[in-house]
Amino acid sequence: MIKVHGWNGTAATLGMSKSALEQRVYEVKGSGMRVDTALLIQNYSGTKHFAQAVAHASGGVFYALPEPGDLSDVELHDKFHELYDELGELSREYTEAKKDGKIDATERAKLQILENRMHATIRELMTLMFLINCPLPNPAVSAREDA
Cα 120 from chain centroid? Predict the structure, then answer.
C-alpha cells in the first residue's frame, strides 16, 4: 500500500516522519501498526490490501461490495447472468473432475476457486438487489461510511 505514494508521501499524510512509519511497519523496538493507521494507509493508497490480508489471515477472502450510485436493473440482470455462467462452469469442472471417480488436489483447487468466485458474485448480486430495491440504507454501506 505504501508503494502507491512512497514512504515520504504516506508518512506525511499520516503526520509522521518516514522513520516513524518504517518503525511501525517493520515493528522496530516493539512498535507496531495500529488498525486505524493501516486503514488510513489503505484508504490513501486506493487499494484493499489491508482488508485482503486480514481476511486471508482469518481463513477467508475479502470481497469489495458495489458502491451505491446510479444503479439499474440492467446491472442486476448482468450479475444474475454472471452467476449462471459461473454455475455452468462449476458444473463442467465438476463433471470433468469426477470422470476418473475421484477429485484430486488440482481439481479440488480449481473447484474451490470457482466456489470463491461464486460467493463474491452472490454477495455482489444481493448488494445490488438491496441497493436498487430497498428504501432503507444498506447496513454494509452505512458501516463503510461511518469508518
Answer: 9
What does the alpha-carbon distance between residue 74 and residue 63 come to, in Å, rounded to a whole number?
21
Mean pLDDT, range 114-130, rounded to an integer: 91
Per-residue cell: 82: 454472471
- Supply 74's cell numbers: 440492467
Percent of the chain having pLDDT more than 70? Answer: 86
**H/E element holding 147?**
none
Instruction: Write the pLDDT tens digit of every residue in 23-32.
Output: 888 888 888 8
- Are 128 and 63 in contact by the 8 Å Cβ rule? The answer is no
Residue 108 to residues 89, 99, 103, Cα–Cα distance (Å): 14, 13, 6
